[in-house]
From TrEMBL:
InterPro entries: DMSO/NO3_reduct_chaperone (IPR020945), TorD-like_sf (IPR036411), TorD/DmsD_chaperones (IPR050289). SUPFAM superfamilies: TorD-like. The lineage of its organism: Bacteria, Pseudomonadati, Campylobacterota, Epsilonproteobacteria, Campylobacterales. It comes from Campylobacter mucosalis CCUG 21559. Keywords: Chaperone. This is Reductase assembly protein. PANTHER family: CHAPERONE PROTEIN YCDY, DIMETHYL SULFOXIDE REDUCTASE CHAPERONE-RELATED. It comes from the Bacteria.
Amino acid sequence: MEILAQNTIKNSLFVEDFLRRIFLQELKKQEFSEILTLCEEFEPKFKEHAFIKELCKISTDDVLLDNLRYEFNRLFVGPRRPKALPYESTYFDYKNMFGTQTFEVREFYKRAGLRVDDEQFDKFPDDYIGFELQYLYFMSYNMLSCADDKAKFEELAEQKAEFVSLHTMWFRDFAKASSEATKLVVWKYFGEFLNLYLENEIVNLAPFSKK
């Protein structure tokens, strides 16, 4: 099997860090600015994406930032049923939370030495998109850290490839729901950006996939 170029892994790492923070941090002005600094390290096709350009415009306007946060809550949080549910299980089984996928991703987290702490678990199940992106980020970080150890690198790459194959295809449905339900163009671009990330990972991890 081939070893992925470090620049390829770094790009995945930065994009995953960026995406996970959108769902794990409050989109306040300071945090928002910190999230945007990650974009400076993206490969051109990510850095120049319309989603990033739109976020940069919003970052300089407090009113637009308030609108972004309001729409984020309407789409993904509530208090009414979110328009684009950010939980893997809701795209399978009986369209409810805490389905089979919740416990399957928990096993991946365990294998990687991760777990959702009790306080967060009260709010979000393991298959929350923020946690899945955090797992992907963690795997990229570890792959980068052991790039000189071929056996360990391949073991981690195979685990990440398996997770992508089994537990991220719902990102497409989530992206579609986000794009169709939003009232703001920035979240339409988000759906496109998420799909770009997913397709990029599928290609990058293809040599390590068991399928």
